Each structure stands twice: as structure tokens, then as C-alpha cells.
């Protein structure tokens, strides 16, 4: 594969990171933390909804019910996070916090980029993206940074762990690892 073709996903990630760093410097670390949590929740939400739709068509009732329960639990967890996060946002107005807020926001933007990339990898795996997934995975295997992010995908590991803890059931293993 040509260099530009192989590194296109990596270049997109770099551009995304630069944009997020600029936004993080403008908004600060506290708001960037909210963005990271939102990216994690959004990724998991999309994964769960894709499972739900896919299992509806495969007529897997148990997996559908478990997915609906996980969607509900995710919604409750996100509402709790928002409730506890509001007072933390107020801290960003303190002078001492303002000093480190913007530089720390830039570092957190790197984390946010990684979380978004992890979410995209999970979605590609779940949605069976065909030619796009195949091309992306070839590019990932040829770029050491993208391969490292793929091999150490926290969101995928989290979802796999949840599936294994809920039930050691064969359907759950198929659901998470498919």
C-alpha cells in the first residue's frame, strides 16, 4: 500500500488531536474531562445499540434483554456523573485552578482523541463495516501507533469484561466478541 493510503487513518487521528487540543486549551481541563466521559459513554451507547439491532434480526431474546438492561444502567451512570460533575465545573472558576486548567486540558485532549479512536475501532468491529473495515484494519496493522491503540483498546476490554462478568454464558461471549 502507498504511504498516504496506509497512514490516512493516522493522519485523521493527528488532525482530530490538534483540533481537540485547540478546543481543550480554549475550554480547559474540566470541560475536557466531560468530553472524555461523553466520548466513552457515546461509544458504549453506539456499541450497545448496534448489538440490540443485530440481535433483534438474529432473534436472540436473551441478548436483547441484557442489552436493554445495560443501556438503562449506562443512562443511570451518565446521569449520576452529570449530577456530580456540575460542582466540579464550578471549581474551574477558582484562580488556582485556572492556572493549570488550560495546559492540563491540552494533555487531556490527547486522552480524548485516544478514547474516540478506541470507540471507532469498537464500532468498526461491531458493525461489520465490510470494505471500509477491511481497509482500516490493514492500515492499522501497518502503522505501529494505530496498532498499539487497537491492541490496547480499553473500551473493547471493558465491554468484554462486562459480558464475561454478567454471565459466563456462551451467548454473551458471542455477543461481546463478535
Structural account:
This protein has one domain. Helices cover 90% and strands 0% of the residues. It is built from 8 helices and no strands. Helix 5 (131-142) packs across helix 6. The two termini are 28 Å apart.
Layout of helices and strands:
Elements: H1 3-27, H2 29-58, H3 61-91, H4 95-127, H5 131-142, H6 144-151, H7 154-166, H8 170-177
Could you give a short description of this structure?
The chain is mainly α. The chain has 8 helices and no strands.
**How would you spell out the order of helices and strands?**
HHHHHHHH
Average the pLDDT over all residues and give the rounded result. 78
What is the 3D shape? flat
Rg, Cα atoms, Å:
18 Å
Class of secondary structure makeup: mainly alpha
Percent of residues in β-strands: under 5%
Helical proportion?
over 70%
Q: Can you count the beta strands?
A: 0
Beginning-to-end CA distance, first to last residue: 28 Å
Instruction: Outline the low-pLDDT stretches.
Output: none
Structural domains: how many: 1
